[in-house]
Amino acid sequence: MRIKLIELLPNNRIRLLFDTSFGWIPAGPIETYFEQSLVSEFLRSNFHAPGRTLQFLNGSMTEQSRATLLASIDAFASEFYQALANSSTYPSDQRQHVGMLLAFRPCGFNDFRPFIGDKSE
Q1: pTM above 0.85, yes or no
Q2: 98: nearest Cα among 117, 85, 119, 80
């Protein structure tokens, strides 16, 4: 069975046959594999080289501030997909595969939860 995710073009080029902004089935097998394997591999990388960054920020904010930041993250994700589309017309030797992790959710540290009454995941 062929699921037709790509089209093979001359000179071993490919064209994706799906929208790059698709999402996995929530808690499905692919998303589970991605979360358990690929994310940890991605995070074990060197983020100190030029053109790389990893930042973990934390603090307390209101629901309105969280909603504003989530809207900004959604807009930034749209910019990322637009940059992919703009770059897709260039030959592969002029492009570099990149990964970007945006994560935003309530969080706490397990060791401190009993002391602060944190109910975050």
Answers
A1: no
A2: 80
